């Protein structure tokens, strides 16, 4: 069973793929060591970009932290080793009021490491010499997908291949070729619910959500002539719930998307789901299954995968009967 995983950068495709490994086979010792290195880099990349962002906002760190801030701005991440001494520097600058003020404003920006609160809260454990990443650590790890990554596992006597392709604009140019020349059984498109008020780096004046909807329509045009099961995953419900509870973010939701309903995350997510599905309806797609998910929730993803499996098998059966 070949399933293509698509979505713009940061939509959570890779987290879902990691969940499939967690659920069906687990990570090898080699993979755990690899994620240890990735998580250490996440900490350093995250604190560096946050310090730079603070400087860009012209927020001044305290006098006692100026030297530390300069250190992180100038450091070369790949040359650093995250030990207990460096971890203390990270925590010290993280707790600076200017850095915290910048972090409050960070959700509207495209910071690579939007998981810094998790990383900082687990930093004392992560910097130890004998540190071994937990499953939750690995799910929180951030690594940009480039090229084509294939994950294989077995479920109910079927071998599954999940093909994860990078979501940056240059990587998206490869999608059509993969769809045209791969015998796919399904395409899962990921969109981040929390991206409705995040500025896009691809197009000035557009949000990441607007870009995601645009790319969704492009995907629909590409696969409309193929007998492929299409699924829509609206991801990051956990972050979305926090945003909708915040008055400023909720006002953005109403203003940007024209929403007039209650301040309720479930209702707001349904509103977004309907916007995505409206694009499919004008193209006369008969059946697209949409799921609102949090890719970090292993239990929920296990349930969703069972539904996805059923959707794909039913599509195969319908296609076989059609021919």
TrEMBL record:
Domain of life: Eukaryota
Gene3D superfamilies in the cross-refs: GI Alpha 1, domain 2-like (1.10.400.10), P-loop containing nucleotide triphosphate hydrolases (3.40.50.300)
Chain residues that bind Mg(2+): 14, 145
Positions of transmembrane segments: none
Protein name: Uncharacterized protein
Keyword hit for GTP-binding: yes
Name of a matching Pfam family: G-alpha
Entry keywords, A to Z: GTP-binding, Magnesium, Metal-binding, Nucleotide-binding, Transducer
Cellular component annotations (GO), alphabetically ordered: cytoplasm; heterotrimeric G-protein complex
Biological processes, Gene Ontology terms: adenylate cyclase-modulating G protein-coupled receptor signaling pathway
Gene Ontology molecular function terms on file: G protein-coupled receptor binding; G-protein beta/gamma-subunit complex binding; GTP binding; GTPase activity; metal ion binding
InterPro entries in the record: Gprotein_alpha_su (IPR001019), GproteinA_insert (IPR011025), P-loop_NTPase (IPR027417)
Stored PANTHER family: GTP-BINDING PROTEIN ALPHA SUBUNIT (PTHR10218), GUANINE NUCLEOTIDE-BINDING PROTEIN ALPHA-5 SUBUNIT (PTHR10218:SF302)
Zinc as UniProt keyword: no
Record-listed GTP binding positions: 139-145, 164-168, 235-238, 295
């Amino acid at each position: 069973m070949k399933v293509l995983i698509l979505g713009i950068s940061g939509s959570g495709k890779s987290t879902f793929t990691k969940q499939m490994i967690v659920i069906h086979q687990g990570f090898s010792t080699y993979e755990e060591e690899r994620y240890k290195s990735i998580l250490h880099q996440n900490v350093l990349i995250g604190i560096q970009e946050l310090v730079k962002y603070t400087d860009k906002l012209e927020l001044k760190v305290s006098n006692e932290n100026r030297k530390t801030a300069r250190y992180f701005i100038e450091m070369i991440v790949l040359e650093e080793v995250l030990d207990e001494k460096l971890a203390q520097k990270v925590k010290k600058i993280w707790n600076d009021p200017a850095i915290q003020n910048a972090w409050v404003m960070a959700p509207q920006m495209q910071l690579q490491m939007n998981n810094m609160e998790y990383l900082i809260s687990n930093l004392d454990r992560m910097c130890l010499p004998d540190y071994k990443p937990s499953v939750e650590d690995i799910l929180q790890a951030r690594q940009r997908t480039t090229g084509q990554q294939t994950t294989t596992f077995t479920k109910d006597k079927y071998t599954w291949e999940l093909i994860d392709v990078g979501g940056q604009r240059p990587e998206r140019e490869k999608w059509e070729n993969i769809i045209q020349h791969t015998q796919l059984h399904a395409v899962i498109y990921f969109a981040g619910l929390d991206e409705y008020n995040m500025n896009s780096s691809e197009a000035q004046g557009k949000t990441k959500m607007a870009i995601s909807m645009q790319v969704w329509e492009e995907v629909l045009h590409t696969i409309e002539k193929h007998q492929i099961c299409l699924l829509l995953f609206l991801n990051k419900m956990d972050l979305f719930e926090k945003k909708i509870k915040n008055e400023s973010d909720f006002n953005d939701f109403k203003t940007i998307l024209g929403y007039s309903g209650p301040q309720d995350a479930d209702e707001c997510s349904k509103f977004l789901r309907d916007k995505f599905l409206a694009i499919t309806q004008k193209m006369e797609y008969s059946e697209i299954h949409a799921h609102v998910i949090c890719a970090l929730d292993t239990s929920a993803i296990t349930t969703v995968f069972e539904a996805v499996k059923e959707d794909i098998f039913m599509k195969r059966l319908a296609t076989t009967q059609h021919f």
